[in-house]
From TrEMBL:
Keyword annotations from UniProtKB, A to Z: Heme, Iron, Membrane, Metal-binding, Monooxygenase, Oxidoreductase, Transmembrane, Transmembrane helix
Protein name: Cytochrome P450
Region (Disordered): 659-678, 721-743
Stored PROSITE patterns: CYTOCHROME_P450
Species classification: Eukaryota, Fungi, Dikarya, Ascomycota, Pezizomycotina
InterPro entries in alphabetical order: Cyt_P450, Cyt_P450_CS, Cyt_P450_E_grp-I, Cyt_P450_sf, Cytochrome_P450_fung
Comp. bias (Low complexity): 665-678
Chain positions recorded as heme binding sites: C434
Single GO MF descriptor: oxidoreductase activity, acting on paired donors, with incorporation or reduction of molecular oxygen
One Pfam family of this chain: p450
Protein family membership: Belongs to the cytochrome P450 family.
Cofactor(s) demanded: heme
Source species of the chain: Daldinia eschscholtzii
Length: 829
């Protein structure tokens, strides 16, 4: 019997090989069979780009609205026009509403808990129902009083400290989102712990979601490398534990306030009411509540910053008309309101143009995934393709928006053939459209109206009184993008306008007291043993560290303690409770309980064995509340009483422990006794050998077949790319048969490598051909002239470049290129 069982195991090994490899082999064969029907695209794929949307736009210009890339095992489709995105993501939403696999952001960082990245399925449907119920049109109207009150605070801040306008925009956006979500407002964006920790979480999420940045997205097997050998993995796992701690603590606070009857209407309250109906766990609910923060804050604050940038660069072209409309409709004795917006078509056009001109979601938001094979305009799109619709390509498409880098609100007053009803695509498409679009667009429209009503916005002045120019292409990297720091002048239009702002501020301050921030933790400035008892029972403590300590002068002085922090762990604990039942390092020895004589409290810690940093370690209780603990690397953290203390475990505070989704406490070892006859032993060995051998052989054959096929494809693509890129290709010299089609080669304009000085720092590749200097008309320009470089690279359409990094010559936007390169000096004005 045992022989049969192990023989079956051997065959199961074979089937497991087949199950892993067959889908990939089938996908590769399907793509190969349809290779002539695939959308056009480049042979050479660039990865690790800091701003991939710039490259995507170049691809769309060169290959059309639908571009095919083979990024690792996943086919990728880049959509470069609003019509293509609408046709696929909206009209054919049933096929394009899923998500690709996000190993870094969705699995390692989020544990499958973020609905934004969830594939189409029951979890995502529950998540979408909650988000739409909390933020779509009808419900979003209930949040307008909060938006209006916070906007009045923003106007007051801009009036008194205009030089800090970026911080004021961030505070406004953060406070609206946190108030709407948790019923607690943000008074100071720099010191609010919820904003700070949420910001850290969103920064990490946007960093890991850049397409092609991490090789694990292309080679999923890298996910299983132990964290000790993969710093990139260990880093996101640590952030994951911090995220769980943050979201569960916020929901615990909401539950507590709701039980006391002090929780105002907010999204988290709506979640609690719907939890039982939807069958969502506490952790799913906590992550759902945290969903609005990243998109909401970045969209509102980034868009308003882009609006101010447009005011500095293009203000005289649109501000007078907008202010004339505001003065006519609103007057000068009150602020504009939501009720005024329908009568302010030009101001609303300014808001729409802001969302179009410099979209925050430059990559078009989170990519979609196709769940079935499809054909679009004769082009084959394979099942499982990643679909990216970068707004940088779509919103700057000359066919839909002539002179796309010009700020022209009039576009949205004219009749235009553009899919949808908004005239832009800032909030996405189809079933994956942004649930917070109504809240976000309302914030942008209202604050643009009030800024234009209240202030004169223009260029800042230097010491000589000259205008300080701004760079409209200087934007941040990442999944979302917003303007890099710039200077501008913000002054009240009149004393009357200033006095109205002051009056409105007083009323708003009083009304917002309902949402006054709840202070988390007490400011304990020193380590005092007499405060330990209060610290132990303080339900507002944020972090608990189980630390092992050694004497700074005498290494034999070993002890352990529990350290409490009112903020993320640092070198200043808010309270310490030493273990007093021995002079050894208890946590390192896996102590399960520790008695504190100072308080008569026993800290019970049911910890597992020490393992990899970030692993679930167990639970603890300090006599007042429960904690969930995770293994940490032994790193120095703080010192006191001639002792240096090192982290052993990090624990979070909550009313009930929340387990990590993908980890669990070490299971108890199961044992059973049985006897086997010599015959059974003999059969077992033969069955195991035969079964496992067959399984291994079958798997090896399949692996070899797939490897050979992939190697052939790679060799063929490389050979084609090399032939296309080789500057010594005799076809280019002779102009004989096979010469690539396109305009004349660049060296027919300038003989040999050289330098051509231009009179102005224009970004020439953004200009129409007829507006370029005659020497570079009909020449494709790669790279950008920006504040970081003084050169741009030129080459012709018919000689695609090869790129390499590391040489300090003309990095532009994409790196340096080989081939017939022509440099253009930038001459400063």
């Amino acid at each position: 019997m045992f022989a049969t069982i192990l023989a079956s195991i051997g065959f199961a090994v074979s089937l497991s090989y087949l199950s892993l490899i067959f889908p990939r082999l089938l996908q590769e064969w399907k793509i190969y069979a349809h290779r002539k029907e695939l959308p056009p695209g480049p042979k050479v794929i660039k990865s690790g780009l800091r701003k991939p949307w710039l490259w995507f736009r170049e691809l769309n210009k060169e290959y059309g609205d639908v571009v095919y890339l083979q990024m690792g095992p996943t086919p990728t489709i880049i959509l470069g026009s609003a019509q293509a995105a609408w046709d696929l993501l909206e009209k054919r939403g049933a096929k394009y509403s899923s998500r690709p696999r996000f190993i870094m952001g969705g699995e390692l960082l989020s544990g499958g808990m973020r609905g934004l990245m969830a594939p189409y399925g029951s979890f995502w449907r529950r998540w979408r129902k909650l988000l739409h119920g909390g933020f779509m049109n009808r419900q979003s109207l209930t949040y307008r009083p909060i938006q209006s009150l916070e906007s009045k605070i923003l106007m007051h801040d801009l009036l008194h400290t205009p030089e800090r306008f970026r911080k004021h925009l961030e505070r406004y956006a953060a406070s609206v989102i946190v108030t709407v979500t948790y019923g607690r407002r943000v008074g100071d964006v720099d010191n609010d712990i919820v904003v700070r920790r949420n910001g850290e979480s969103m920064d990490r999420l946007t960093q890991v979601n850049i397409p092609g940045k991490y090789k694990v997205e292309r080679y999923p097997a890298l996910k299983y490398i132990p964290s000790i050998f993969a710093p990139w993995k260990a880093e996101v796992l640590r952030q994951r534990q911090k995220d769980i701690q943050l979201y569960t603590e916020l929901m615990d606070e909401v539950k507590d306030r709701n039980a006391r009857g002090t929780l105002p209407t907010c999204f988290a309250k709506h979640l609690l009411e719907e939890q039982e109906n939807l069958g969502m766990s506490d952790l799913e609910l906590a992550y759902t509540a945290g969903s609005p923060f990243g998109a909401g804050v970045e969209t509102s604050a980034g868009s308003l910053a882009s609006f101010l940038l447009a005011c500095v660069k293009f203000g005289p072209q649109f501000i007078p008309r907008a202010q004339e409309e505001l003065d006519r409709v609103v007057g000068n004795d009150r602020l504009p309101t939501f009720e005024d917006l329908p009568q302010l078509p030009y101001v609303r056009a300014v808001a729409s143009e802001t969302l179009r001109w410099r979209p925050v979601a430059v990559l078009g938001g989170t990519p979609h995934a196709s769940t079935a094979d499809d054909v679009y305009k004769g082009m084959f799109i394979p099942k499982g393709s990643t679909i990216i619709a970068p707004l940088w390509s779509i919103h700057l498409n000359e066919s839909d928006f002539p002179e796309p880098n010009e700020f022209r609100p009039e576009r949205f007053l004219e009749e235009r053939d553009y899919p949808g009803t908004l005239g832009h695509s800032a909030f996405g498409w189809g079933r994956r459209i942004c649930p917070g679009m109504h809240l976000g667009s309302a914030s942008v429209e209202l604050n643009i109206a009030r800024i234009l009503w209240a202030f004169k916005v223009g260029p800042a002045k230097d010491a000589s009184g000259n205008d300080i120019d701004v760079d409209i292409f200087a934007f941040s990297d990442g999944f979302n993008s917003s303007p890099l720091p710039f200077q501008c002048s913000i002054q009240p239009r009149s004393q009357k306008h200033a006095s109205v702002i002051e009056q409105e501020f007083q009323g708003a301050t009083e009304s917002l007291k309902t949402y006054t921030p709840v202070e988390i933790g007490n400011d304990v400035n020193s380590v005092m043993h007499e405060l330990i008892h209060e610290t132990l029972k303080d339900k507002d403590i944020l972090n608990v560290i189980l630390a092992d300590c050694v004497g700074s002068q005498n290494s034999s002085q070993l002890s352990s303690e529990v350290a409490y922090f009112n903020s993320p762990p640092n070198d200043s604990p808010g309270g310490i409770a030493p273990v007093t039942d021995g002079q050894h390092r208890d946590w390192a020895d896996n102590t399960t309980s520790a008695y504190f004589t100072d308080t008569g409290t026993t800290f019970k810690a049911e910890l597992g064995k020490r393992g990899t940093s970030g692993d679930y370690a167990g639970v603890g209780n300090n006599g007042y509340t429960d904690f969930t603990c995770w293994q940490m690397d032994s790193e120095y953290l703080y010192s006191h009483d001639d002792k240096n203390c090192f982290v052993a475990y990090e624990c979070n505070h909550m009313t009930s422990p929340v387990p990590i989704p993908s980890a669990s406490p070490p299971a108890a070892t199961m044992s059973s006794s049985s006897t086997a006859t010599p015959e059974a032993d003999s059969g077992l060995s033969v069955g195991a050998i035969v079964g496992i051998s067959i399984g291994t052989a079958a798997g090896a054959i399949l692996i070899a077949a797939v490897a050979a096929f992939l190697i052939y494809r790679h060799w063929r693509a490389k050979k084609q790319a090399q032939a296309a890129n080789d500057p010594q290709d005799p076809r280019l010299e002779t102009g004989g048969p096979g010469t690539p089609k396109g305009p004349p080669l660049a060296n027919t304009i300038w003989q040999g490598p050289g330098v051509r000085e231009l009179e102005t720092p224009q970004v020439y590749h953004e200009l129409h051909n007829v507006n370029r200097p005659v020497e570079i008309q009909s020449v494709l320009i790669r790279g950008e002239l920006d504040g970081s470089t003084s050169r741009a690279e030129l080459h012709s359409y018919d000689l695609p470049p090869r790129y390499e990094f590391g040489t300090p010559i003309s990095p532009g936007a994409y790196g340096n290129q080989k081939g017939p390169v022509y440099h253009v000096n930038r001459v400063e004005e």
